Amino acid sequence: MTDWVAELCRFVGVASDYRGFDGQLIQVAPDTQVAVLRAMGLDVTSEADARVVLHRIRTVEEQRQLPQELIVTAGQPAKFPVSRTVSWSLETESGEKVVESGEAVQSIAIPALPIGIHRLCLNGEFTSWVLARPLRALNLSDLIAEPRIWGVLTALYGLTDKTAASLGSYHSLGEYAAAMAMHGADFVGINPIHAMGQVRPDDVVSPYSPSHREFLNTWYCTETGSASCDLINYRAALQENAAALDDGFEEFLRLPDGAPEKRSLAGFRASGGARLRDFAVFEALAFRFGSDWRKWPTPYQDRDSGAVAAFAHDHEQEIALVEWGQWQSDVQLANAQTRAIKAGMRLGLYLDLAVGPRLGGAETWSKDTALVTGATLGAPPDPLGPSGQSWGLAPLCPIRIRKQGYAGFARLLRTVMRHAGMIRIDHVLGLMRSYWIPEGSEEGTYVRYPFDALLAVVAIESVRTKSIVIGEDLGLVPSGLREKTEAAGIYGLDVLQYMRSEDGGFVDTSKTRKKAVCSFATHDTPTIAGFFAAEDARVRAEIGSIDRTCFANVRADRQAAAQTLGASQPVQEIHRRLARSNSEIVAVQLDDIAERKDQQNLPGTVDEFPNWRLKAPFSVSDIKTSDAFVCLGTEMSAQSRSNQNGMEKDNDLQDCSHVAH
Questions:
Q1: Which of 92, 338, 410, 423 could cross-link 97 (Cys pair, CB 3.0–4.6 Å)?
Q2: Where are the annotated coiled coils located (predicted)?
């Protein structure tokens, strides 16, 4: 007897089983499979429903002359067979112009196309998306003759210049970048700066739980008052931020109508179009009804409702404030990148694309979203999370994104890349498959994505924006993923503390991947000093998440690892090994340069650890005169990594930050 639910799952890419962390085959319960199918928008509650839906989808596919997407190399003609005579036309990405048309008997000969996502129509009806991709994404060798560089990873929220501010800012980012450039750094990498929302759930401060990834976090576009404590007080800082935004907007409104600032905002609004307007309306509604639109009164949950239109008409001032804040954030972030480049950095900002937005945020409320809210992204059970992980983030629906021609994904990449020399795609494994947990369920399963098409879109946007792409390829990596991402020009991540040798130490860094960012840690792992002191294990033992035996084992392992270094200063020795690595790009954490033991985030904790609250251990002036930075710059320079132009710059660098105000 045919298992129609399983058949439908196979056809649309929902796994009926998968391999766990230990290689064991995990069978997914039928109820979970049905729940995932329903989250994808398929009307399935029974085997009979599954049979009907599968028949309908298969019929549509069988009637196709060509696949839903055709991937071609930009600048090269291509040919695709057809089974019967058709008339065809090829439209540009914008849909405004027909590039080529004709009649085909056996095959359609597509001319050489510029990079982009174009539309192919057969017999007057849309048939296929034509993804004209470059040979690969932008690589460091396309920008630098001898591609060996280094940079610094830090948290933007912590760049408070010690006690000068209560929260970091885009202005301070430019200041810090310029100071780091003096030591030869070519980039500064920060946490995601997607819009968190001026109204948010009280427990959400993680930059990896944004409201909307196409817009910027206005928490960073004002310089809030000073704070002497070592931790970020978000409640106080965001109250100051909101007041500063109100004051800045009132000052802006008093400018004459023909002022350059008002013309600039008008241009920003025009380019942002309906999407900017929708986001601003959401923010205004959130002030009234709360951060999660799924809990709003029913008429306001629908973007196209009359209630939403009436609300927008009556609250133009609040909506304008949000648009102004986005404009300010965009200008200030652009200035930070300009300052970094003028200071000598060859890449400048290294920005982060979060894997998804929170379920009730602005991005899932958008009219044309390809996201779903009937399931959450997460991870299956493993030794660190025996019950699995639920991230509370909205998954991308593979059916919807293909139907929309990958426009939303391309737009998202373009947005994050526009002021960045390099971006990191968090959990790049999600371009191949993601683990979905249906609403109300504890069990989940994997959903497959059109991986080759998504890689083509990444390459297209990388070349368009001249931004290098790093894929965070850590964890349970599917077979073939790293080979495909490397072929697409996407760099990987080699994290040294995960790369242990048989003697208990670390692999020889001369063996790390060339096309990778080599570092010792991430924001979710111990710092160098914290690793060798087993600080993370000590905290976990104190809060009861591991027992004393486990703590003792971890501490013994770390002490043995320290012995293999053969050096009295493990931080400096690790940095020396990073400098000598085979990888084109090396990243050093600001916390490691200061030999800090605490890490930015301790996964699996909420109130037990000050996640996302640590301030930077250096002020801007500290960095300029820091012996630790001088030694690090010298080490990197000895390995031909440092940007000599940055090191030769006068300390009195040009300040372009006034452009933002």
A1: 92
A2: none
